Recover the amino acids of this structure.
């Protein structure tokens, strides 16, 4: 399933994210909470994240310095957690700090994952992304 849409959200006092109901079936069980390269927290189904990292590292010499760095980055910044019976997941403090999130967040669909953004950071990023969209699509060989 691809994740789509944008939703404003408030984390509870214990920093738990209540996963939107339309995504709970896909995210039931274990999920990875990942500090992204961008200032956000990604929420991946366990199998999706594991397969994605495996594909990303598969062509690299596992003994090369860059492959070791990437393996460390992807592993150390990912927490495997489980949704509780109410469809909530505790977001680690370090992940929230990375994204600049206190209690208010924007949940966006990002294809294979959901992402949590600090609202003002998302607004700025999305504005810039929207301005770049014609150039990005053209660079990939798609009509604007």
């Amino acid at each position: 399933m691809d994740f789509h849409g944008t939703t404003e959200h408030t984390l509870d006092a214990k920093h738990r994210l209540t996963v939107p109901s339309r995504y709970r079936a896909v995210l039931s069980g274990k999920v990875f909470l990942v500090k992204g390269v961008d200032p956000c927290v990604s929420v991946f189904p366990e199998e999706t994240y594991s397969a994605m990292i495996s594909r990303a590292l598969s062509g690299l010499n596992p003994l090369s310095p860059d492959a070791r760095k990437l393996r460390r980055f992807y592993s150390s910044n990912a927490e495997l957690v489980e949704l509780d019976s109410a469809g909530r997941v505790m977001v680690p403090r370090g992940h929230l700090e990375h994204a600049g999130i206190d209690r208010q967040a924007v949940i966006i669909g990002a294809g294979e994952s959901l992402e949590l953004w600090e609202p003002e950071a998302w607004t700025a990023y999305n504005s810039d992304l929207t301005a770049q969209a014609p150039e990005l699509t053209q660079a990939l060989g798609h009509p604007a």
Notes: Residues 28 and 85 are 9 Å apart (CA to CA).
